[in-house]
Amino acid sequence: MSQKIVIVDYGAGNLKSAQNATQRAARELGGGFEVVVSSDPKDVQNADRVILPGVGAFADCMAGLTAVEGMIEAMHKRVILDAVPFLGICVGMQLLASEGREKIYTHGLDWIPGIVKHIEPNDKTLKVPHMGWNTLTQTNPHPMLDDLDIGPDGLNAYFVHSYHFEVADPAHLLATVEYGQTLTAIVGRDNLIATQFHPEKSQSLGLKFISNFLNWSL
Amino acid sequence: MTLKTRLIPCLDVKDGRVVKGVNFVDLVDAGDPVESAIAYDAAGADELCFLDITASHEGRETIYDVVARTAAHCFMPLTVGGGIRTVEDIRKLLLSGADKVSINSAAVKDPDFINRAADKFGNQCIVVSVDAKRRAEDALVEGQSKWEIYTHGGRNATGIDAIEFAKDMVKRGAGELLVTSMDRDGTKIGFDLELTRAISDAVEVPVIASGGVGTLDHLVDGVNEGRASAVLAASIFHFGTYSIGEAKQHMAQSGIAVRQDNVAKG
Q1: What's the mean pLDDT when you consider all of chain A?
Q2: Residue B248 is part of a domain; what is its CATH number?
Q3: Which residues in chain B land under pLDDT 70?
Q4: Which residues contact B54 (CB under 8 A, 6 or more apart)?
Q5: pLDDT exceeds 90 at position A43
Q6: Burial group, residue B204, by CB count within 10 angstroms (0-12, 13-18, 19+)
Q7: B256 touching A, CB under 8 A?
Q8: What share of chain B is helix, strand, coil (3-state, %, to 5)?
Q9: ipTM for the complex shown
Q10: What is the pLDDT of residue B22?
Q11: Domain range enclosing B33
């Protein structure tokens, strides 16, 4: 039986990249995965792993996700109650927060307590968005990060964001990135992991990260 | 530790083939864009840019196929520009696998298009291409900058002030500006650094410097003097004058933080 990986389609941006990268990682693992892009809650209900991508504004993404009838309920059932591995990417990570403060205040999924706030670099010459390649600093142990070549001299990850996730519980912060202030790069708890950077755009680091997600056993 | 300065090779594409001309005329056919993209990916380019240079005049269906085939092989950001007119054009490119789109003529003709595009797809994927030429000394306008916006690959003057245009585009939702000196494009004598810096200082979003790179020092100047967040070049890479690795090494030796994952990791 191959594992079913569902990439949730709720009208937020470019799912092709996430699909391409997940398929490549799956092939490199020797197959055994069916990668599905779907807006059907039934696919989420029988997924073995769930990926929530997302680009754009927090409020728009939350509205988009809410607009897919039954999707948030299906995700809650499969990811929170059944505890299948979950990967959030970029705004798909930020939606896990309690609240987003982009344009307007919006409730998030509240799966990882915290608030999504605008980046305010101390160095005012720094451009916002934080766009491009940067290295990660691991702040808590996690099995998916064990064999990943990260750290100040490690591989770079690709970021594009103007907002970042301030987690309420430091135990949920797995890695950070420096950009005039310390920004959240990876969050996680239990069966949830999520990245501010785009693993599907982060070349070797990203493919390895996705590969580790496909292999992650709880 | 720090955000890296991006090095972006640009492939000018016509009818599904790579070309690069001096000052946008006198085109030389030089290869398959997907093959070139894969090579740049392996060499450690930080992003890729496709510019569909004849898109304003001819059918552009070929670019969707080029983008889709590239995105299936390259796991790095991909920007596509040229002839983008409608929200539907953007959607088709994003669905093909592009991450960002670069908009020029349509932004000049209908600035509200940038608002609509950014609202629909997010600022992060809307790059506005600021194609500017220096005004002649006797044509300088009181209260305006030295540069004027051009469209259609540098053929059409608009009378619009380049700095004011750049600021307006960011206000409307451009997440990044691709600043090309139409005086320098294809000349290999370096970026118009004054232009790059004037725009970079005027906006808070990242600026990509483009147009005129002939040596590796030009890339360094674009960052240090032009204050660009990224530097874009076409011919020096495409015709093999320099490799991506050589360019990054030179930038690193000049004190610029660049990503050298491929170099460091073999």
Answers
A1: 95
A2: 3.20.20.70
A3: 1, 20-30, 54-60, 263-266
A4: B14, B15, B82
A5: yes
A6: middle
A7: no
A8: 40, 25, 40
A9: 0.91
A10: 42
A11: 6-260
Residue A129 to residue B206, Cβ atoms within 8 A: yes
In a domain, B81, yes or no: yes
Element (H, E) at A214: helix A203-215
Cα within 13 Å of Cα(B10), Cβ side? 28
**Number of Cβ within a 10 Å radius of residue B40:** 25
What span, in angstroms and rounded, lies between the C-alpha atoms of A134 and A146?
Answer: 19
Instruction: Report yes or no on B219 lying in a domain.
Output: yes
Provide φ and ψ at A64, rounded to 5°: -65, -45
Cα(B221)–Cα(B225) distance, rounded to whole angstroms?
A: 5
Residue ranges of B 115-144 with Cβ closer than 8 A to chain A: 121-125
How long a stretch of residues is chain A?
Answer: 218
What structural domains does chain A harbor?
Answer: 3-215 (3.40.50.880)
In a domain, B266, yes or no: no
For chain B, what is the domain count? 1
Looking at CA atoms only, how far is residue B258 from chain A in angstroms? 9
Give A 116-155 residues with CB within 8 A of chain B.
126-135, 149, 152-153, 155
Residue B170 maps to a domain = yes
